[in-house]
Inverse folding.
């Protein structure tokens, strides 16, 4: 919030640094416990399962709220935005250009990570590495195209509720792709 109002990067940078530090420490511990020291204990496995379940529930609620904001604003546009959707002065992106390409990339990455998973299960190491590598490349490509789309967008996050819902929802999704790409790269 301070970044948006005062353009000060200190707290934003501090938060990002702390998140990255926690992520590195956690991944190091999980990797050490699962590979070098043997298997997790039953309590650790239960904790990981419950934590993962709570994570999935929180993610569903996040995205539900983003879609709720979009549909509420688009199906019942307010007087402040001209009672029209998209608001007056907003030139929406063509859904058949970069968004369609990004959709194809994400679907392809789902196929390649499934290929990698099946290769791991069947013990085919070289194919699993190929599948994971291709998935990481597709994740980086998606992120690059999303960044290009943000830079070239004819509206900003400050341009009414349309810009806000677009950048928050797609930014949150892009953040998930970046984190997933990092996790798969570590694998």
């Amino acid at each position: 919030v301070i970044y948006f109002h005062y353009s000060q990067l200190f707290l934003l940078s501090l938060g990002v640094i702390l998140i990255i530090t926690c992520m590195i420490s956690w991944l190091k511990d999980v990797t050490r416990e699962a590979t070098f020291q043997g298997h997790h204990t039953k309590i650790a496995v239960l904790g990981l399962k419950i934590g993962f379940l709570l994570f999935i529930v929180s993610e569903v609620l996040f995205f539900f709220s983003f879609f709720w904001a979009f549909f509420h604003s688009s199906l019942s546009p307010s007087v402040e935005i001209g009672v029209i959707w998209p608001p007056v002065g907003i030139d929406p992106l063509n859904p058949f250009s970069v968004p369609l390409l990004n959709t194809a990339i994400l679907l392809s990455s789902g196929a390649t990570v499934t290929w990698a998973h099946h290769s791991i299960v069947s013990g085919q190491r070289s194919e699993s590495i190929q599948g994971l590598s291709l998935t990481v490349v597709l994740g980086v490509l998606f992120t690059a195209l999303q960044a290009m789309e943000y830079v070239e967008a004819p509206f900003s996050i400050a341009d009414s509720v349309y810009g806000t819902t677009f950048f928050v929802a797609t930014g949150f999704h892009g953040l998930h792709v970046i984190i997933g790409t990092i996790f798969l790269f570590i694998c």
